[in-house]
């Protein structure tokens, strides 16, 4: 968990997961001075307030976005089609897809040639039998 410190630096603090020993957390809080605890409580309140503000801003932006889409006549089905098309274009433009596609194409050509050869051999055998 990244925590913004009053000094303006980021540091990693581990927060116990659910089920971890709660006594360790209590022990950590006891190691802090009253002043440090007060500072952290203020920081906690500030961060919670910022999160709430950001959530409200995000909700307002999403509402505005929906209104713009409604005015443009863009519906969910059209968006889904556009997203699928864009995703497919993104996939097909990747190097891995191109290499895989080329490999499969070459394998298909080799398989076709092999089946053709086998077919020729079988036809020749039938002709020889006659």
Automatic annotation (TrEMBL):
<protein>
    <submittedName>
        <fullName>TPD52 protein</fullName>
    </submittedName>
</protein>
<keyword id="KW-0175">Coiled coil</keyword>
<dbReference type="Pfam" id="PF04201">
    <property type="entry name" value="TPD52"/>
</dbReference>
<comment type="similarity">
    <text>Belongs to the TPD52 family.</text>
</comment>
<feature type="coiled-coil region">
    <location>
        <begin position="30"/>
        <end position="71"/>
    </location>
</feature>
<dbReference type="GO" id="GO:0030183">
    <property type="term" value="P:B cell differentiation"/>
</dbReference>
<dbReference type="GO" id="GO:0005737">
    <property type="term" value="C:cytoplasm"/>
</dbReference>
<dbReference type="InterPro" id="IPR007327">
    <property type="entry name" value="TPD52"/>
</dbReference>
